[in-house]
């Protein structure tokens, strides 16, 4: 039963992705829908990261002893300044690691 569920979900996900990727299919999205979909990745990432950064122990932690918060702030600052995502991830991870080690 579990295998059947996994296969069914795989087909659903593949089908929903294939419709938008295959250029031979006549499905075209208008500009409003494309603009709306451009916000989906940041929205999903925000929904995943917000509890990790602000609730690391299960309760709100906005102090400077929160390594997750320090890493997130460092990453945001590097992205805002340099626009280099790889550098931002490296610096954010480094700040997180050092903060976790020292704190």
UniProtKB/TrEMBL annotation:
Superkingdom, natural source: Bacteria
Keyword set includes Plastid: no
Residue ranges of the TM segments: 6-25, 37-55, 61-80, 85-102
InterPro entries: Brnchd-chn_aa_trnsp_AzlD
Coiled-coil residue windows: none
Residues making up the signal peptide according to the UniProt record: none
Key word Transmembrane helix present: yes
Keywords carried by this UniProt record: Membrane, Transmembrane, Transmembrane helix
Protein name, entry field: AzlD domain-containing protein
Organism (species): Reinekea thalattae
